[in-house]
Amino acid sequence: MKRHLTVLGATGSIGVSTLDVVARHPDRYSVHALTGHTRLAELAAQAAQFLPRYLVVGDERSAEQLALLVADGPFEGDILYGAQALCTVAADPAADTVMAAIVGAAGLAPTLAAVEAGKRVLLANKEALVMAGPLFMASVERSAALLLPIDSEHNAIFQSLPSHYTSEAYRGGPRGAVAAAQGVDKLLLSASGGPFREWSRAQMAAATPAEAVAHPNWSMGAKISVDSATLMNKGLELIEAAHLFAVGADQIEVVVHPQSVIHSLVQYRDGSVLAQLGNPDMRTPIAHALAWPERIDSGVGHLDLLAVARLDFAAPDLERFPALALAYRAAAQGGSAPAVLNAANEVAVAAFLAGHIGFLQIAELVAAVLETCQPREPDTLAAVQACDRDARLQAQALVSQLTKKG
Ligand code: NAD
Ligand code: MG
């Protein structure tokens, strides 16, 4: 039976990789809806190629521009706009699978809408889970949704929990997978170390946005590339893993592995360590989650171990990369702390990319907002969004102060 797929964030790095895999399997997948934000020409080209029923953009003006761009092409569906339209297509009964690949907090409501509608949800948008972990996972358990991790590390861990594949314990998401696999000691989360792995603090102080987004192994969107440079990405992933696999942050160890070939590992009580390896190309986890439990061609070449030749490992340096320490703290604190961490980080990264603050100020700003925001226990989407909003306001105020000083 053909799967009907909606791609939230189709014009981004993950969205484009997803459509690349989908295009290889026209017999398996049809595209129901595609959403984009600013890259309208790219979205129009995707519409002409995949002929979805719906396109969604941010506002009325973008919808009008997009209508002109598709006017002479074969696309005959509808163009919708606004945040509510994202939730509508995410929950549309005509689609069974949703790729959640919007970056940042903007992805939370539509991803949750897909979960609540019981879809197969391919989760790339880690910020959604970081912000609203308990709420999100409770919703996965309540609905008949099937949650499959796209983040390469979490996908690797999922693949390294073998009993999971045949286990009755597999219901909603990977939650419970660790318990079902039995005898898991630890999850080992791989980190490339980012472009500044060997830089001193003094060098990082002068780092430019162009240097920060130049990741040595992965080609990704700007925000996650900066997060990889600060190691906040690993911090967000730590919180993501804790929710996905229902383990404490103390059961997750970050291992710096500069080659990005081992995507993560699971350490068992008997001394066994299982890992998933592959070339650093997101089409592998995307294809895995699209077809699970089957395997399909992803377009990724075979891993040439002889060309890789060596695999290195090191502990992360929390002094040079304080963002990771902040994430550990927020994970331990729970409640609103991860949402505050995420919101402050989004504002700080945007300010850094815009040239308003320095690279080291990203983590400083996140630390300051975590200090000042009152801890809360948000138990509804609206409450999580309120924490997000408040933290953003605090972070923006700090950015303005820093900008005036500089
Ligand atoms: P990207 O910046 O390349 O793309 C982001 C997508 O989100 C675009 O389609 C954009 O149109 C859309 N978008 C941005 N702001 C929006 C808004 N306010 N409303 C609606 N849509 C909006 O990002 P990416 O690298 O593809 O990452 C997407 C998500 O996947 C992120 O959460 C990231 O952490 C995660 N992820 C990415 C990678 C990777 O290799 N790129 C790996 C693991 C996880
Ligand atoms: Mg990752």
From the structure above, extract its key features.
alpha/beta, binds nicotinamide-adenine-dinucleotide, 4-stranded mixed sheet, 14% strand, 406 residues, 7-stranded parallel sheet, Rossmann fold, Rna Polymerase Sigma Factor, Chain: A, binds magnesium ion
In short:
Helices cover 48% and strands 14% of the residues.
What are the low-pLDDT stretches, counting only 5+ consecutive residues below 50? none
Secondary-structure element sequence?
A: EHEHEHEHEHEHEHHEHHHHEEEHHHHHH
CATH architectural arrangement of the domain at 3-149: 3-Layer(aba) Sandwich
Structural class: alpha/beta
Radius of gyration: 20 Å
CATH class membership of the domain at 3-149: Alpha Beta
User: What is the end-to-end distance?
Assistant: 59 Å
Helical element count? 18
- Strand fraction: 5-15%
